[in-house]
Amino acid sequence: MVLGTDQGATISLDRGQTWSSWYNQPTAQLYHVITDNQFPYVVYGAQQDSGSAAVLKKKPRRATGER
Known about the structure:
Elements: E1 2-5, E2 8-11, E3 30-35, E4 42-47, E5 51-56
Antiparallel strand pairs: 1-2, 3-4, 4-5
């Protein structure tokens, strides 16, 4: 059995007695995304039925040959 939810999908191989986890799936349904004025900035997002998330922006990669 497969169950699709806002958090991802879960699978049961024993007719619904136990279910797999959706916590190992990098999915999110964001309905509002903003950034702040810090440097490097933080991206904030409100997730559908799953609370909220905040992620620090990654530093830019160095150009080829830069030392």
